[in-house]
Design brief:
Elements (H helix, E strand, L loop, with lengths): L2 E7 L3 E2 L7 E2 L1 E7 L3 H8 L4 E3 L2 E5 L8 E6 L7 H10 L3 E5 L5 H18 L8 H8 L6 E8 L2 E10 L3 E9 L8 H15 L4 E7 L4 H4 L7 E4 L11 E4 L2
Parallel strand pairs: 11-12
Antiparallel strand pairs: 1-4, 2-3, 4-6, 5-6, 7-12, 7-13, 8-9, 9-10, 10-11, 13-14
Helix pairs in contact: 2-5
C-alpha cells in the first residue's frame, strides 16, 4: 500500500511551457505505490518522476491537457508508421531502470540539443540525481533501452501496469534525430501495451502552445481528460477523432 511522505502545492513560478503564464504543481511524495494505485492516479491526470507524483494546479491556466491513447482504437498515420519502421534497426531491451556512465552521457548529449534549440536551462545530472528521477525503486518503473550494434542510442522511461503503459520520459542521441525517434517511441509503447493486452498508453500532457508537447495531439484518435478530478471523483475522458 502506498505511503504518502509529503503532500503539497508549490508556489506559482514561471511556466516552462508558456512564457506568459505562471505554473504550479500539486505533489504527492510517495513510496510503495502499487500498479493498481498508480492506475487510479493516471486516470485522474497524475504523472510520476521517481518518488514524486504530480499534476498541474495552476489557478489561471488549464492548457496542460492529460492525453492518452486507446491502443485498440489508435491508428498510426503513414508518416508515423515510417518512423516506427526506421526504428526497427535498433534492438529494444525492456528492463528495470538503472544508472551508469553511458546513460548519463546520453542524457547530457540529448539535453544539450534542447538547450541550444529551445532555450532549456542547462542540466547535467549527477548519478544520484538520475537515480532519484529515473531509476527510483518502483514496482511499475521500466526502461526501454535502444541499442545500435551494442551502443545505447535512446532510452524511454515508462510505468507499466496490468491495464496501461505510461510514457514518462524519452531521450536519444542527436545522431538519430532525423529518424523521428520520439514518434517511434510512442508507437513502441503502443506495441508494448498491445503485447500485454493493456488498453491505454498515457502520454502525459498536451499543450497546444508548446512545440515540445503539442505534437502529442498528432496521435489519433486520442482521449483528453476533463478537468482535474479528485481521487474520489469519477474521471471523464473524451475522445478526439482525426
Amino acid at each position: 500500500m502506498a505511503r504518502i511522505v509529503r503532500h503539497f502545492i508549490e508556489e506559482p513560478r514561471a511556466c516552462a511551457y508558456l512564457s506568459d503564464q505562471k505554473a504550479s504543481l500539486e505533489y504527492r511524495l510517495m513510496v510503495n505505490v502499487s500498479g493498481e494505485e498508480l492506475e487510479v492516479l493516471l486516470l485522474r491526470g497524475w504523472r510520476r518522476f521517481g518518488p514524486a507524483y504530480f499534476r498541474p494546479a495552476c489557478k489561471l491556466c488549464t492548457e496542460c491537457m492529460s492525453i492518452r491513447l486507446d491502443v485498440h482504437r489508435f491508428e498510426a498515420t503513414d508518416s508515423q508508421k515510417r518512423a516506427l519502421r526506421r526504428s526497427k534497426r535498433f534492438k529494444v531491451v525492456v528492463g528495470r531502470p538503472s544508472v551508469d556512465a553511458e546513460r548519463l552521457k546520453l542524457h547530457e548529449s540529448w539535453h544539450a540539443t534542447r538547450e541550444d534549440a529551445r532555450g532549456w536551462e542547462k542540466a547535467s545530472l549527477t548519478e544520484d540525481e538520475y537515480q532519484t528521477q529515473f531509476a527510483f525503486p518502483s514496482s511499475t518503473g521500466r526502461e526501454m533501452a535502444w541499442y545500435d550494434d551494442g551502443k545505447l542510442v535512446a532510452l524511454g522511461l515508462v510505468d507499466v501496469t496490468a491495464r496501461c503503459v505510461s510514457a514518462a520520459y524519452f531521450f536519444y542521441h542527436p545522431s538519430i534525430a532525423h529518424l523521428s525517434p520520439g514518434v517511434a517511441n510512442v508507437l513502441r509503447c503502443v506495441e508494448l501495451a498491445r503485447e500485454m493486452s493493456a488498453q491505454h498508453v498515457y502520454l502525459g500532457y498536451r499543450v497546444e502552445g508548446c512545440a515540445s508537447l503539442k505534437y502529442k495531439g498528432n496521435f489519433k484518435p486520442h482521449e483528453l481528460l476533463d478537468g482535474r478530478p479528485a481521487l474520489a471523483e469519477l474521471p471523464v475522458w473524451r475522445e478526439v477523432k482525426p
